[in-house]
Amino acid sequence: SPAAPSGTSPCGSPIPRSLVTASLLISNARTACDEDLLAREGVTFCVNVTRQQPFPGLQQVRGIRVPVFDDPAEDLYRYFEQCSDAIEEAVRGGGKCLVYCKNGRSRSAAICTAYLMRHRKLPLKDAFETVKAARPVAEPNAGFWSQLQRYEEDLKISKQPDLLNKGLNSL
After folding, report:
1. CATH of the domain at 93
2. What pLDDT, on the 0 to 100 scale, is given for residue 59?
3. Which residue range(s) make up the domain with 78?
4. Of 1, 29, 125, 142, whose CB has the highest number of CB atoms within 10 Å?
5. Keywords of this protein's UniProt record, alphabetized (predicted)?
6. Do residues 24 and 87 touch, judged by C-beta distance below 8 A?
């Protein structure tokens, strides 16, 4: 029988983790602690975007905690760069990264979106659409969304020297 398309189990139902890129996954906290699934997916690094949810108990999986609540007043912005760079480092080392929060909706989606903006050079709209395609429930709260908009502006500022190097073809 033909192999199931990625993102579905053999019976065709969606499995509870979602691939944003070939090496970046997003999920809720319950899925993140499914050690069989993590081992099967080859996850080597976790970004736990919660104050209280546990890390998976696998020795081969390293991780960082981003201690924020899903509250529009929280400053997630100050973690965008650190998380994006940690994800990229794991990916470049041949690993796979899982970003998760309690429900896999707001905090984790914002971090994945920030990563795609910083390291895949995607505009906010395209970055978020990529995350949403992988995890349809993704929806950063209004505060995180405005922080992502600010991050997009900041990344544009830091990219201006590149535009000069490339000439106007890329505009």
Report:
1. 3.90.190.10
2. 86
3. 18-170
4. 29
5. Hydrolase, Protein phosphatase
6. yes
- For residue range 68-96, list pLDDT tens digits in order: 999 999 999 999 999 999 999 999 999 99
Q: What is the 3-state secondary structure (H, E, C) of the chain?
A: CCCCCCCECCCCCECCCEEEECCEEEEEHHHHCCHHHHHHHCCCEEEECCCCCCCCCCCCCEEEECCCCCCCCCCCHHHHHHHHHHHHHHHHCCCCEEEEECCCCCHHHHHHHHHHHHHCCCCHHHHHHHHHHHCCCCCCCHHHHHHHHHHHHHHHHHHHHHHHHHHHHHC
Task: Report d(CA 57, CA 62) in Å as an integer.
Answer: 10
To the query of whether residue 101 is one of the catalytic residues in this protein, the response is: yes
Q: Which residue shows structure tokens 């995350």?
A: 131
Give the C-alpha separation, 85 to 80, whole Å: 9
